[in-house]
Amino acid sequence: MALGPRLSDFPRIRRTVTFYKVSSVITGSFLLVLCLMMFFRYGLGGDIELNGPDGFLGLQNKDLITGINVSTIILIVHGWLYVFYVAADFVLWRLTRFSFLRFLYIALGGIIPLLSFFLERQVPRFVEAKLARIESAAAAAAAGADSEKASA
Known about the structure:
Blueprint: H1 10-43, E1 47-52, E2 55-60, E3 68-69, H2 70-96, H3 100-107, H4 115-151
Antiparallel strand pairs: 1-2, 1-3
């Protein structure tokens, strides 16, 4: 028998897909903010500072920041959001019994800008198609077993 998701796991898989979609969009959005922050840091030479000497928001050399370093906050928040994203990916991988390469591919969505938005659409479609195939095969097998009982 081919290795695949169990029918008893389908409700959990569907809940995990929903959590994955939400975490994918949020993580992808913060990744874009992180890319903008990196442009400010390495392209313009300053971190984003909140309530510093330059006013409400400003760019300041990292060593000269006296207010709140928003760049560091963006880094930390994206890191934690990525942890939740990979956790959703891991649970989905475990329940659906994907290959490990598919797990790694989905995990890249929180690292490569814009990939998470693409995967947020692709992965649920793939999972739902796989679940539908398994459900229809199980229904056909149940119908075949019922017709055998009736003829016997």
